[in-house]
Amino acid sequence: MADKILDTTKVWLDVKTVAELKGITERAVRLSLRQQNKYKFETEDIRGGKSYKICLSSLEPELQTKFLNEYYKALVLEETEEIDLNIQPVQEKIIPESMKRVALARLDLLKLWKEYIKEKTNKSQANEEFLQLYNTGEFYKDIFEILKTTSMRNIITQSEKKPQNLSNSPPKVGKFFATFSS
């Protein structure tokens, strides 16, 4: 990264800063501005009088170097220093793996059930067939190992619920299906 070069013609200093650089009083700086045409300066009308701004490039080279060494480096360092804000981290809800597996297995069972009854004309008979097949433990064995037996009421109740993001909140484990809080 290339160093940025400061354009000293665009830097204007107040009387207090110039007085500190020169080691004299602010009054002495203001008097020298009015009496000598040594420095390039601007006046600004403010409440209660005038404010003077002195161009950095019109100061002696030693004062320019001193300003850059003292003030400019301090400004750069202030911008890049780490700031201790004392912010406490927010504890996110951590969902245990076992709860995630149960919730995903329930979701898979719902999808399988919907596919199964979609092909059938008699929905109530299809529901009973699906339930009997599933509860034997031979139909979708991997899901059955996680969820065990269920009832049609649990499947239908869960299918009527609005799907939500699993990462938002941990499931409240009930008899069969996890319900998600909004």
Please tell me about this protein's structure.
The chain is mainly α and 182 residues long. It has two domains: 8-80, Winged helix-like DNA-binding domain superfamily/Winged helix DNA-binding domain (Arc Repressor Mutant, subunit A), CATH 1.10.10.10; 97-179, no CATH class. It contains seven helices and five strands. It has helices spanning 15-22, 26-35, 61-80, 97-118, 123-135, 141-147, 152-160, and strands spanning 12-14, 41-46, 49-55, 172-173, 178-179. A three-stranded antiparallel β-sheet has the order 1-3-2. Helix 4 (97-118) packs across helix 5. The longest helix is centred in the middle third of the chain and has 22 residues, at 97-118.
Helix content: 40-55%
Mean pLDDT: 76
Counted beta strands? 5
How many structural domains? 2
Give the strand order, joined by hyphens, for the main sheet.
1-3-2
Determine the N-to-C terminus distance.
49 Å
Topology as a string of helices (H) and strands (E): EHHEEHHHHHEE
Radius of gyration: 38 Å
Looking at the structure, what is the overall shape?
rod-shaped
Features:
single chain, 182 residues, mainly alpha, Arc Repressor Mutant, subunit A, 2 domains, three-stranded antiparallel beta sheet, two-stranded antiparallel ribbon, disordered C terminus
Task: Draw up the topology in text.
Blueprint: E1 12-14, H1 15-22, H2 26-35, E2 41-46, E3 49-55, H3 61-80, H4 97-118, H5 123-135, H6 141-147, H7 152-160, E4 172-173, E5 178-179
Antiparallel strand pairs: 1-3, 2-3, 4-5
Helix pairs in contact: 1-2, 4-5
